[in-house]
Model the fold of this input.
Amino acid sequence: MTSQQIQQVLDGRWAHIRRAVRERLGSEFVTVPGETGPEARERISRLIRSVPTDVGVAAAFPSRYGGSDDPGGSTVAAEMLAQVDLSLMVKAGVQWGLFGGAVVALGTERHHEAYLRDIISADLMGCFAMTETGHGSDVQQLRTTCVYDPATETFDLHTPHQAARKDYIGNAAKDGRMAVVFAQLITGGRSYGVHAWLVPIRDERGDPMPGVTLGDAGAKAGLLGVDNGRISFDHVTVPREMLLDRYGQVAPDGTYSSPIENDSRRFFTMLGTLVRGRITVGGAAAAATRSALTIAVRYGETRRQFTGPGFEREVLLNDYLAHQRKLLPALATTYAYAFAQEELVATLAEGPADEHGQRELESRAAGLKAMQTWHATRTIQLCRESCGGAGYLAENRLPGLKADTDVFTTFEGDNTVLLQLVAKGLLTGYRDAFGSLDGWGRATFVAEQVREMVLERTAARSVIQRLVSAVPGRDEEVAVTDRGWHLSVFEDREKHLLEGAIRRLRNGAATRKDQPFEIFNDVQDHILKVATAHIDRITLEAFVAGIERATDPDARALLAKLCDLYALSVIEADKGWFMEHGRLTPARSKAVTAVVNDLLRDLRPHMTTLVNAFAIPEEWLNAAILREEPDRQEAMAKEDEASRSLLVA
Amino acid sequence: MTSQQIQQVLDGRWAHIRRAVRERLGSEFVTVPGETGPEARERISRLIRSVPTDVGVAAAFPSRYGGSDDPGGSTVAAEMLAQVDLSLMVKAGVQWGLFGGAVVALGTERHHEAYLRDIISADLMGCFAMTETGHGSDVQQLRTTCVYDPATETFDLHTPHQAARKDYIGNAAKDGRMAVVFAQLITGGRSYGVHAWLVPIRDERGDPMPGVTLGDAGAKAGLLGVDNGRISFDHVTVPREMLLDRYGQVAPDGTYSSPIENDSRRFFTMLGTLVRGRITVGGAAAAATRSALTIAVRYGETRRQFTGPGFEREVLLNDYLAHQRKLLPALATTYAYAFAQEELVATLAEGPADEHGQRELESRAAGLKAMQTWHATRTIQLCRESCGGAGYLAENRLPGLKADTDVFTTFEGDNTVLLQLVAKGLLTGYRDAFGSLDGWGRATFVAEQVREMVLERTAARSVIQRLVSAVPGRDEEVAVTDRGWHLSVFEDREKHLLEGAIRRLRNGAATRKDQPFEIFNDVQDHILKVATAHIDRITLEAFVAGIERATDPDARALLAKLCDLYALSVIEADKGWFMEHGRLTPARSKAVTAVVNDLLRDLRPHMTTLVNAFAIPEEWLNAAILREEPDRQEAMAKEDEASRSLLVA
Done:
């Protein structure tokens, strides 16, 4: 079956983990639609302790403590958990990704020895206390302080004012016993920037530790099973050895030392080690999108509405062009991101070769997180609407998928800020991405430093080069379905946008050197478009590389058609830009739309195959509208047809 | 103050009703974020009985029963209720709009005499039982039957199979005691199409009546305060006089008579009398959009993130171009729809002059409902994201606004089906919109019947004509901010799209006469675009007319700039089409984007004024992030600044 052949390609390198999660997480793990907040928290708190760790959720931990040194496997496991229940995935992400991951990446052996086993077993539940009420995007500016006192050889951890309290922190409201707390490290009267400490926040009975105030973030739009909360510290004493000191050490006498001289560079290096969180969120959003599409496509394959001359039965929703226009490009894009995500995870798993590679990994993680989470929000909404009133009922899963994933667009980095980070990396050719997490800063600097871009390809370099080279010079001669043309058009758009941004920033810097914010702000929309064009390109290249991995000819042909639809949907959506810049003639632009419609017709019979290839276990889907037996459905349809005969002609 | 001057224009003809609701619905009516389903149902069931009816909620009822014969006023009152609490608005809409409205419009004096007083006082709570599980969009095909028996002079109301049960029915799960039930009327062995009966569904104790099965639709994404449910009938006996018989009567002997001969025409005439529901939903979506924008704009005016050289403080979110790009076009569009909605309500209030006018009213109600509800979904999402993590907390209202309004895109008519209705009305010049609620039917017929379109203007005809006439022939010579150019471009786009659709349908009909579904389906995307272009045009014309009503020069100037932004945002979003069709040169298209950015800069200082003009009472907004006192905010900002000095340079 073609769907199984495609599933094999999608399952990819971590197929064993996907298989394990599918097999081992049975009905007791499945989302319970419509439960109350307290019910959800209770259920998820219970389940997090019974997730079998050998399905990959702890894969990123060192093998000597029970992991398998496989960060790629752990992100894939998290993605699979997201298909079971998004609260469970986020809870797992907090515990094993953010909290446990920070202890691994920022701590040293004594921390690992003392805590990792209990973290993996979930006996020690923890928090990742970075975000503050006042600072979420600009985390270099956190206000919590941790001041070293050589007399007592302890730190004094303190929340100076309300806006400095830790906010939205997962596990803080109920389950967390310790927290990795991010604060400004001050010793000898000097601040060395943000560092992290491992701090107990609850005692054995679950009561707050002295000086620690814990609050509940209260009702949220979704993720009801996650106990997000607030943490404040009133001069809490923290032993010296609880500093997670891989990147910065404080000697008993208070002397600070670090392998990285520059405070800002050190901070971004520390943040960089936590890149897995963003990759996981992108993957989780994609998993939820696949669930929603599976529900909507399968519903559209049984739901009929409106009859017409020449038809014995009412028309299936999936047969309407407008319905195909909603679901099929979203499906194609979902495939495209699946391939891009797989490639990103592979890069994480292999470990970047150098600092340049690390910056590129961070940039792609940021960009794909932004694009996949926005795609999830849009697509789940489309799926909800495609199921009509049924889509609004909790029992049909779509409300939960929508509400749970909504926050993904702003957590683990606000999407707009992340795209800016991507663009800055491109502007500076990844040479100086440090400090690039700030909102706009150093525009003048950037404008002076930028160099001509060199497109960096990761996926299927040679295949892509061959396809691009085969494209004749004049666009008009090439079919709009030519893959080489797609690739070169995506590449050209990115390059042109980037060069334009560089030019505008340089002009700004030349004429209004004293207004760096204005220089940057005037081109902010342009800069964001650079980032999306870049991610579009690497996504298309990943799709092309993915097709190469398909061995079955039918699967290959279907994926190629879907790739056509993805590429042409992107071009169609941005046809204004292509015409403005002489990349498309009006006639060719119209041809793109016509070919998109042709592709919808061609792909229509394969919609079910394409969602079946996501291989989501039936019990995970858990949507009442899919639960009717086919026989019963047919019987209902027959009854319905019979009753039509009563109606007015 | 400019905001008050603008408020006056927005409040418009029903300012007295807006004022009354603002003054009379105090804190006890305000949304309670984060409540459970049962809590919400209990609260709303209680509140619906204490809404003061003299604020306009019963205005549409005849004055002899306690109303004021003012359907316009009742839609405005419902819109205002939506700003207080969307569940309350929907509950009110079910009770006084759908249920009460159907009794008024479809019933005759004996029904009015017997029930209207109790309906107005909410002593008799009722349902509008039209939608069935199997038929929501194509309601002409409802499967419930109601068969007359002259021997007993009663009807037999029956649900023949599961897909024919009434579904998603407001008030059915808990509060409804009667229902207006839509079913196929059969007498003398012939069906006369869908009619409505007034049927008791619960006895005095709240138990189901004999033969009636009531169910609960269960947990929903939002609108938790509304008790949606399911109703099935097992051969329920309904007395002859309970037929709402304004449009069709059954004599004791079973003889059917009607003032309207044609069954289909009769059915759509009956539906047409219920147009108020759609107008109300559009208005409610707009009210929620205004609440969300008020919260996001005011938050963006206090929230700062990221510092930079030359800045003493961090930058306000509203100062970022990307933030303005999110909020300001949405704000401009919200104003545009407010004017279009006011005009639509005025048309409803005046009553259409003839059948043509009635068809046009229905078409505009359908189109503006679709556009306003999609705009609400998109904009509330943008506002949620613009508030970051805070936007995900129930206490900040955005999750509730989002979840509650979500269903508006598919209830009271699925938006896609509604836009198709609009397009068909245009294709047939409103001459034969009967039957146009079907999904696609009679494409051949339509293609043969279409005539050249004549643009029909309602608003400010002479002003618009003057502005359009003043535009010189060649576009290039006109400033992109020229109002006449905007108007002529919107008009030209609609006309060209419509003519293109006609041509394609005609060609299809000529070449594949035996495939009417395919003829239609091939152009479905084109047809939907005709509808949006049409609604865009009437919306712009309404905005232009609205500016004329502003007397204060500052208010007028600000509204004019906002109208520029609305018009150019629409053009920018569709610039691909304009270039494809030679309506914009690439250079001029780029100029549009540049001018949009200039407008954002110009309008930036007025964002607060523009949301203040919505005049939403502070206690209705009810968002924790807005609740801090300005003094306290300033103090927090100062503390925050002070703590910055501790940080690494």
User: Anything to note?
Assistant: The longest strand of chain B covers residues 190-200. Chain B touches chain A through 103 residues (CB under 8 Å).
